[in-house]
Amino acid sequence: METVSIEVKTVAELANAPAEYREAASKIVRSHAINELYGAQVFDEPAVAFAPTPYWKWLTCRVAMEEYGHHQRFFRLGQKMGIAPETMIPGKTDKRPLSIFEFTMRSWPEFCVIKLLADMAEIIQVEDLMECTFRPLRDEAAKTMPEEKFHAGFGLRSCTELCRTEDGRRDVQAAIDALFPGMPAFFGQPRSKNNALYRKWGLKQHTNEAMRADYLERARVLVEDKLGLKLPAPA
Amino acid sequence: MPFDAAVVAQHARAIETAPWFAATGLPFSDDERRALAELAPRIARVGGWAQARAVADDARANAAYDADAREAAALKAQAESAAGSPAVLRALSAVVDEGLPVFFGCAEAALARAGLHDEELSRVAAGAVGEAVYRAALAAATAHPAHRFIGVAAAYAIGRWPLARIDDVLYML
Ligand SMILES: [Fe+2]
Ligand SMILES: [Fe+2]
User: Fold this and answer.
1) pLDDT tens digits for A137-152?
2) CB contact A55 to B (< 8 Å)
3) pTM of the prediction?
C-alpha cells in the first residue's frame, strides 16, 4: 500500500488532516484509553489481594495507579481530539476491550505472568507509536514507555523470585501455559485493513504479523532463556 | 451513611503540599512520639530503607493489612450505597490523579537523601501512601472523623512511613 508523507504536530492541526487520518488516529487513542483502564480494573487492582506481603501489595497498588494514569493520558488526549468520553471507557462503549482481558486471573503467579507477558505486548505496541506521525500521540507513548518497561521488569523479577522454589516454578509454568496461547491475538488479525490504514498514514510502522513475530521472539527469550521454562505454542 | 465528595476533594488538594517521607530515617521528636502513640500499643522505629523493605515484606504483617483492606471495602460499600458507584469512583480518582506524580517524586527524593536509587522501593512507598490517603479520604467522606485510617494518613503526612503492624507493634520508618 502507498504511504503518505504527513506530520501532524498538534491536536489543533489535526482539524486540517484528511478525514481518514483523523478517524484512524481516533481509533488508536480510543483503543489505548479503553485497554489501559480495563487492564487496571480486571488485573492490577484485584491482584493487590493476591500479593504475598504488604511490600508486593503496595507495589501492585502503585502499578495499578500507573495503568490508570496511562488511561487518563490517552483519555485526555482523546477529549482534546473531540472523541466522545463515553467511547473511551470500558463498559460504556460497545467497542470491546482486547480478548486477553477475558483471561480469569486467580492467583499471584498468574498476575506476575500477566505483567511479564502482557506488558511486554503493550511495550511492543507503544514502541510502534514512538515514530507516529501524529506527534501528540507519539509524546504520550514516550511518557508511557518507562512505566511499561518497569511493569514488564516487575513481571520478570516477581516470576524469577517465584521460580526459586519447585512449587513456584510449577505455578509460573502453569500460568504461562494458561495465558500465553491467547497472547499473540493481542496483535490483531493478519492482513488487517485497520493496520494497513495506520501504516498508510504513518500512525503505525509495523504490520500486525511483524509485531506478533517480534513478540513471540521476545516472549521466548523471557520464558526460556531468562526463566528456564517452556513457552507453549500460540493458539 | 452520607458520602461527601467535597471532603475527598480536600484530601486530594492537600497532597501537593505535605512533606511525604521527609522524616524517614530520623529519630522521633516528642510531638511525633505523642501523635504516633495513638496508632498502636507500641511503635518501633525502623532506621533505614533496607530494613524498611524487609519489614514491609514480612508475611506476619498480612493479618493487620488484610483487616484494613476489609475495612476499606466496607467503607467503600457504604459510600457507594449513599452516592452510587460512579460518583464515588469519580471523587476518589482525584486522589489518584493528584498523587501519581507527587508520591513517587517524594519517595525518590527521600531515598536519594539516603544515597539510594531504587525504582521499585520508591514505587512501593508511593503505593503505600497512595493507598493510605485514599482510605483516609474515604473514611472522612463517610463521616468517620476519628477513623484509624485518618491517623495512619496523618503519620504519612508528617513525613513518616508506617510500614507494618505485627501483633501490637507498628513499625515506622
Ligand atoms: Fe499501561
Ligand atoms: Fe503496564
Assistant:
1) 999 999 999 999 999 9
2) yes
3) 0.95
CA distances for A16 relative to A10, A132, B23, angstroms? 11, 17, 53
In what order do the strands lie in the sheet containing B169-172?
B42-45, B169-172, B162-166
Joined grid coordinates for residue B49: 530503607
State how far the Cα of B100 lies from the Cα of B127, in Å rounded to an integer.
Answer: 9
Q: How far is A204 from chain B (nearest CA, A)?
A: 29
Number of domains in chain A: 1
Residue A36 belongs to domain with CATH number: 1.20.1260.10
| Within-domain flag for A4 | no
A11 near B CB under 8 A: no
Distances (CA, A) of B136 to A71, B68, B94: 24, 11, 13
- pLDDT, tens only, A177-202: 999 999 998 898 889 999 999 999 99
Tell me how crowded residue A104 is: count the other CB atoms within 10 A of its CB: 8
Q: What's the grid cell of residue A226?
A: 531468562
CB count in 10 Å sphere of residue A190: 10
Cα dist. B10→A120, B79, B105, B133 in Å? 38, 17, 21, 11
In a domain, A73, yes or no: yes
Q: Any chain A CB within 8 A of the CB of B164?
A: yes
Across the range A208-216, mean pLDDT stands at: 96
| CA dist., res. B54 & res. A54, Å (int) | 10
The span from the CA of A164 to the CA of A183, in Å, is: 25
Domain annotation covers residue A32: yes
Instruction: Give pLDDT tens digits for A46-77.
Output: 999 999 999 999 999 999 999 999 999 999 99
Distance of CA A25 to the CA centre of its chain: 17
